[in-house]
Amino acid sequence: MKCDKAGYVSDKAQYLDAYFWEKIKLYMHLFFCEFCREYVKNNTKLSEAFVRSDLKTMTHNDKQKLKKTLYEEMLKAN
Question: Full-prediction pTM beyond 0.85?
Answer without folding.
Answer: no
